[in-house]
Amino acid sequence: MVRRAVIFAAGALLVAGCGGDGQARSTASPVPTAAVSDPPTSHPSAPVLVFFQRQGAGGATLDTFTVRRDGSARLEKRYGGAGGRFKDVELGKGELPRLKAALARLPRAGSTLTRGSPPPGGAQYLVRYRGRTQTAREGGVVAEARPAVRLLDGFIDGIGVRSPTRETATNNP
Hints:
The protein is of the alpha+beta class and 173 residues long. The chain has 3 helices and 7 strands. Helix 2 (95-104) packs antiparallel against helix 3 (146-156).
């Protein structure tokens, strides 16, 4: 089951990075649709600011963090075939302006935020912002993208977020 999750996530990263000059605008929703079993978010009407995905940090994990324009956020941590945890959180005081400033620095061209040859085994990132999807690999993130990736990666680890407003798990709705 873990192998399937890794293959699926790797395929998603490959598809996101393929084709075009990076200038095409997607009309698709910036956030993947939630599974039927996932609980509703606490702020469903707030528009999404950014969607961030981290794959492979700490084993076979697929962590996502969606930030809405009002500073509310949704953390989803999936553990291969072992289920996952879902938290609705609020960004800490001052974090939303810092994040917006960091996102404004993201390169506007291209689908990759990686330069060089990062060492193997690091995390892979996917960022969806303003209708564009960009990917990066730990250890090779371009300078312009480092502040945004660092903040979003920290949010997944609980840095810069307040206590959950709602918390559920696959086996404990």
